[in-house]
Design brief:
By secondary structure, the protein is of the alpha/beta class. It has a single domain, classed as TIM Barrel, CATH 3.20.20. 50% of the residues lie in helices and 8% in strands. It has a nine-stranded parallel β-sheet with strand order 5-4-3-2-1-9-8-7-6. The N and C termini lie far apart (58 Å).
Length: 509
Amino acid sequence: MAPPPETVFYGPPGLPRPGEYPFTSGIYPEMYRQRLWTMRQYAGFGSAEDTNRRFRYLLDQGMTGLSVAFDLPTQMGYDSDHLLARGEVGRTGVAISTLADMEVLLKEIPLEQVSTSMTINATAAILLAMYVVVAEGQGSTPPQLQGTVQNDILKEYIARGTYIYPPQPSLRLVTDLFTWCGREAPQWNTISISGYHIREAGSTAAQELAFTFANGIAYVEAAVAAGLSVDDFGRRLSFFFNVQQHFFEEAAKFRAARRLWARLMKERFGASDQRAMQCRFHSQTAGSSLTAQQVDNNVVRTTLEALAAVLGGTQSLHTNSRDEALSLPTEESARLALRTQQVIAYESGIPAVADPLAGSYYVEALTDRLEQEAQELISEIDGLGGAVAALESGFQQELIAQAAFEKQQAVESGRQVIVGVNRFEQEEDTDTTTQSIDPQVEQAQLERLARVKAERDSEAVARNLAALTQVARGQGNLLPPIIDCVRGYTTLGEISQALKAVFGEYRPH
């Protein structure tokens, strides 16, 4: 491969360079020459033991950051032994009911050396508390920990559905986590404001940007109202975007995202610290672009989407596996997905230049159009009273449903070609090996949970839950009493139920 060019950036005169406001071409002057993006592989299935083995395998294969998927009961605030958890334990992610599960999940993983992303929202504070307590047990302190907790509850009401409490107390949990981490874990990213699920639900690229940033505006407003400095907590905000199939539009979307967020933070909220204006983001290739037919085609789709993310300047990337339209990925498929990133990083030459698409007439026009369309939608949401009022009226949900309907019509009519689905079909090979979850996983999880409940100090659990309830009824920060509960092996479901008794439960209109 040819040596890297001496010039880092080839943009036209007048275009801000990488690392310069409004960061269109990247948030760092040297971009990937300085440091490659973090290569994450999202994993979580079955038992904590299974997922721990997968994490350690992927770390041995060169993965540079953990990304944890939790099962549906954990996301919804139910313990594995709850009636509503039956049949769902370990199915869409790892089951975590108590600190004991988290200890097994993270066994022999040096948390002070690894950046960890946790895709969790309604129960984010509880899972972060467990992570912190496990790290302390390993000898690490909260200031040493690096990673991200998704903690983006507003998009759950819009696109995903794993909410528990109404929006206002949910926002309190979000900002309490901001405050606690700002004081105790300053390297931890306190939120990953997610457009990924909005796009998976069927939105357009412009809608993904607009609805994500409208939610971001709501979080910033809530944090400012709680007395936090925009320049302090703004540095720990991060985003999570989808990478879809339109190669150039997706690369342009990321350029537009950086520019739009920088302007919002500076002009709307008065941020003066450049780090508080930077749109730092994780990206993941599109699950909705994967097909169950001709699964090897998914390798090509994922590669093109990963290229768009890298050319767009992502800070972190997960590449989906070829078999995820059929099941959770096998170990071999996860390794190939990771190797896809490594080939781009080390063999393509792309990381040698910052924003190599800068100055392209097409890409610059797409960047301008996406920013303008997103800003117009944000203004419309402002006119409705902001993101919370808009989602309660169904505004975002209706636009997403319409966009999804139009895309499906295009596929069914053949106007949008999906190779192997509505064109170039072939007889299927049914020998594809898929990941399966051992039915005994749920039973083993229930047995561990029963042991924890039998061996813990029940009186201490009751005292800690009473203290949490008292804080929830008042104005104090909820993280310290949640951490106390976790240390005493109070379950995730018990903590969630205590909060639900005070905050209530959200029912969509």
